[in-house]
Amino acid sequence: MAYTLYVGEKRFSSWSARPWILLRGLGIPFTERLVSLQPDAAKAGRFSRLPGGRVPVLEDGAVLVWDSLAIVEYLAERHPGTWPADPVARAFARSCCCEMHGGFQALRGEMSMDLAARRPQRLRSDAVKADIARIEALWTEARHRFGQGGPHLFGAFSAADAYFAPVAFRFQTYGVEPKGEAGLVMRTLLSHPAVSAWESPGIKEPALSDHDLDAMYPGDPARTW
Questions:
Q1: Which of these, 48, 72, 74, lies nearest to 63 by C-alpha position?
Q2: Are 110 and 128 in contact (CB under 8 A)?
Q3: Which of 22, 45, 50, 81 could cysteine-pair with 162, CB 3.0–4.6 Å?
Q4: What is each CA distance from 137 to 19, 88, 148, in whole angstroms?
Q5: What digits encode the pLDDT tens for the residues 158-193?
Q6: Over the stretch 14-51, which tens digit does the pLDDT of each residue have?
Q7: Cβ contact 195:24 at 8 Å
Q8: What domains are there in the chain, each with its CATH number?
Q9: ω into residue 56 within 30 of 0, thus cis?
Q10: Which residues pair with 6 in a beta bridge?
Q11: Concatenated DSSP letters for 32-58?
Q12: What is the value of pTM for the model shown?
């Protein structure tokens, strides 16, 4: 079994981070291939060769799996520990990840992932506040109900931790400090070796011209909500 994972730049690609961190965290060998998000003349050609024209994509021999959640489920069929073993915990973990996958649009829009940036927000929209509160509630409930077996969301490291790692990155960038159990979850995520292994090189990557808010809006206070 020889996996290849196609990813975007670590600094910005939250979708790529999830399966990469999962594979690394579970100790599953894989080869990484960068498909750069740089908005140059060759970008369209690079992405046209990928299913759906996006990263991440997992290659397993002749099989291509795209979309981060589809990759997680593909791995779960082959690698115990991807999801919690207990069926009730597993259902809750899957529901949390699906909610993250399809929701939290305000958080995505107003707190884009940028590992190298620090943009503490003075003000936040009501929609972002609601998204943050919902994430804190999910983290707290997961720990209280299923976290007795270890320090992670469901005790042992699982897909849920990999799925919420980019949220922890966003909270760190924008100065969100969850309280209580949710704060412990954030600190645990950011200190996990697989999460650190994604973050460390990502911090050093150059900005993308269509992602760098400092370059696009120099001195503009409107980008601090």
A1: 74
A2: yes
A3: 22
A4: 24, 18, 17
A5: 999 999 999 999 999 999 999 999 999 999 999 999
A6: 999 999 999 999 999 999 999 988 888 888 898 888 99
A7: no
A8: 3-76 (3.40.30.10), 87-204 (1.20.1050.10)
A9: yes
A10: 33, 57
A11: EEE-----STTHHHHHHTSGGG-S-EE
A12: 0.92
Can you tell me the distance from the alpha carbon of 111 to that of 46, in angstroms, rounded to the nearest whole number?
Answer: 27
What is the C-alpha to C-alpha distance for residues 191 and 23, in angstroms, rounded to an integer?
Answer: 17
Closest C-alpha to 125, from 114, 111, 142: 111
As given in the structure block, the two tokens for residue 64 are 């291509």
- Judged by DSSP in three states, 106 sits in helix
Q: Sheet containing 63-66: which strands, arranged edge to edge?
A: 30-34, 3-7, 57-60, 63-66
155 - beta bridge partners?
A: 152
CA distances from 95 to 19, 103, 111, 117 (A): 17, 11, 23, 30
